[in-house]
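I hope you will forgive my troubling you with a question about protein structure. You will find the record immediately after this paragraph.
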Amino acid sequence: MRRPPLWLYAEAASALLIARADVLLRPARRHFASRTRGDRQASPQMLAEIRRVIVSASSRLPIRAQCYEQALAARSMLARRGVKTRLHFGGGKQVGELTAHVWLTAGAQFVVGEEGAASHSPLISTD
């Protein structure tokens, strides 16, 4: 797979910064109440590219950008491209503690958060 263009990394970084501010300022119910519009099908290459730049940018920013922020950032990037996505919030239990995880799908394909989705039961999903 070729390396995504530099401007896409910049878009991912700005989307992550906006997502972090959104998580801090807006209640979670607003994130799950809003829906994305679009009818364009995302190619597996597009989803892999978005995933790659989101994960890469999140590890380099001086902010907390974990599953929730990554899912919101990827969602906004795909919405700009006319791709409808679904945001999922799940809960689980690991080593006696309750855990939470957020992931994003486009159709039947995972965009971000796939690694933790299997160990969490879906509680809320957007339509």
